[in-house]
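If you are new to this repository, start here. Below is one unmodified record pulled from the training split, so you can see the exact layout before writing a loader.
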Amino acid sequence: MDVYKFLSKQIRFEDFNQPIGMKMSRENRWVKKANLIPWEEIELGYAKLFTNKKGNVAKPLRMALGALIIQTEYGYSDVETMLQIQETAYLQYFCGISEYSEERPFDPSLMVYFRKRLTPEILGEINEMILKNIQKPKIVEDAPKETDDDKDNHTPPTPPNDGTLIVDATCAPSKIKYPQDTELLNQSREYLEDLIDTLHKPIDGIKPRTYRKQARKDYLNLARKKKRTAKDIRKAIGKQLRYVKRNLAHVDGMKKRGATLTVRQEGRLDVVKTVYQQQLFMFDNHTHKVADRIVSISQPYIRPIVRGKAKAPVEFGIKLDISVVDGFVRLEKQSFDAYNEGEYLMETIERYRQRTGHYPARVLADKIYRNRENLNFCKENEIRLAGPALGRPKKDAIVNRVQNYLDECERVEVERAFSLAKGKFGMGLIRARLEDTTKTVVALSILTLNLAKVLRTLLHHFWIFMKSWLFEGVYEKMVFVQ
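And here is the target side for that same chain:
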């Protein structure tokens, strides 16, 4: 176990010892990003993760979070992230190193521990800290005044609804091989063969026969075919099922005779047994559907997510909900199970109320969010849930086509966030191999997306100020000359 020690003070730009001959600029984006993050406030919560008083000293929070943000920004591997920090002075400053050094800042294997320690909940709190400094509360002029009856009852007046909440869901696909039934059974069979080789000892006598050469030949007969009929696929699946069944019986027999498995081997064996049971169920019942279907032996937590897109009707990864307010994104929910996003709209609206103190004036969402429960909830709280009414349209119904068009145009903001997160910030293909770190990668994508948005906003405000200042100066000169 590691122990954590606080830094003496957070490094400032003036404190960074630059190499001789190098002049670093304050206008560099990594210097500006470092100023946007409340490092000291975040470090207080990060230090609570380390309960031991003895052991190796863990890397500082700024080093861990900074390295993960850099990796998300550029899509580097763990090794390449460490090398880029080692070679770049601006990245070293962003990670809290006090002076430029050519030494390795940390071992690349520590990146895995950084992702494990900075959980999605912690990253969500960090995201809120950053947005709290940017999104200032709006002053509503027409707020109801407190009456004498309210003073007697000590109940403050309810603030009016304000703001727009945009919500939507998507899938962040993981980097796995496209799942095929024969491929999954072949991988299960090969793992069981390796497990039998590991567990067998010469004193046990003759090693159980696995028919691995014939099983491999049967698999390749189908895998190398350019055209596969349904009959060929079913025949190959049946053969692989029998091979896996025989090997599972051998492993169970060896365990009864005293063979012991490690925790990792036991976990992988449970996955293989589940795959066999699912494939046997589908084979016997002539179906292609089963509950909690496993699509990857190495990552059994991944589930198929049906999205109905033209490019990929089914994606394999984690499903997530986000909300967009004033252009800034928040991660509302993520799960590997294919849940109905419409069931969590009320929770998202309540979280909006906790942050701002009032409900949103309108919610822009897809049709799946417009169920009766959500419509009744929004009607009770005077929230306009954009979209058509349920059921068949009435003959005398008045449809505001202009408003519907404007709502649909503004709802594109959430699609823009998905596109940017997937195309730029690593959510388009998750390369993490663990369940926890996969969720961390998604939360990091949202955090880095907001940092980029804040940086663009500050730059935009700066140029507006400069333009207004220049035009005012030119106007004053013109008046003075006249």
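Two things worth knowing about this chain: The chain is about 50% helix and 10% strand. The chain has a mean pLDDT of 87.
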